[in-house]
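Table S5 (text form). Sequence records supplied for joint modeling of the two-component complex.
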Amino acid sequence: MKKTFLARRNALLSSANISWGVFALAFAALLLLVRLLAPNLFWQAFTPVFHSADALAAQSHAFFSSFGDTAILALRNEQLTDENTALANENQALLERVAGFEMLKGSVSKKASESIIAGVLARPPVSPYDTLVLAAGAKEGVTVGQEAFGPGGVPIGFVSSVLPDFSRVTLFSAPNMMLQGWIGRENILVTLFGSGAGTMRASLARSAGATEGDTVFTSGPGMLPIGRIVRIDSDPSSPAVTLQIQAAFNLFSVAWVELRDAGPAFAKSFSWATSTLP
Amino acid sequence: MGDFNASMMRGALTLSTFVSIVFFPWPLSALLALAASFFEPLVPLAAGIFFDTLYYAPSAHGLPLFTVCGAVVTAIAFLVRSQLSADSRREF
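The corresponding structure-token record, covering 370 residues in total, follows.
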């Protein structure tokens, strides 16, 4: 009688060749299932992991910084301290002026009491879609559509999804993101496109005279700085130039954000680009 | 002993890919998944699913990009492996 050997019938599942890939796939599928069925539980389980990732990043940064030249570091530290003092003074003066304007206007700003401070669990470049995962959700009063501000009141994105304890912010630099903005002191109106990795780009007529270092503003409560031009790509055959814009601060190291309702004007100022747009 | 070491190496590479997704920038994770595909073709797909489980924002992108890319790399890895095993059988 002919005997049939089935040892290699299914190489992936045979006991002799238990595949790590199968384990990995099963693990990923299980996590996906938990994420879909109980998203809040999923993020609660992963919060300590993200915190340890943050701690590891901070420790490794301190370790590699220790190799730097101490004299240069001391000089830089002194310069930054001076700069920080000057900025704090300037900020104080501006706050006083704002308070004066509000008194003249007869209205007291209520935004401070309505804002929510949220810690950041995951950020680019670990999070590849230019999104932030925040440790604050519906229980803290976060709602979809709120605007997110970074340190210094810089607008960085908007709340795109909310769970009871967690929420997700999509950054203005996310691909397919379109945002209205202004450039420089002349307030040249431009449309900003998200390019990923914390950067944006915009096209502008060459004759507009934008230069590297110009500040880019967007609407919020007033005009708010969102970034600055770091490079201008120019094609001699084209009447337009492409501006490469970097966020006003390092999005890769943001530790907390402030969430506020920015009103319908903010919602109108951005939209998703379709795939046919650049 | 050699098989055991190879299996442990494959396991370490798989584990490193998953740890990297949480701890390190995504290009490193993608590189590790690509390297793991030489030994474990299913790892890129698993890593892609894990990536999108953690970070995918439906409002930002139509497709879960990393899952799609992982599936493509896994398919290519299986194709290459089947071609190589067919070639080696033909030599005998």
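Note: DSSP finds four helices and no strands in chain B.
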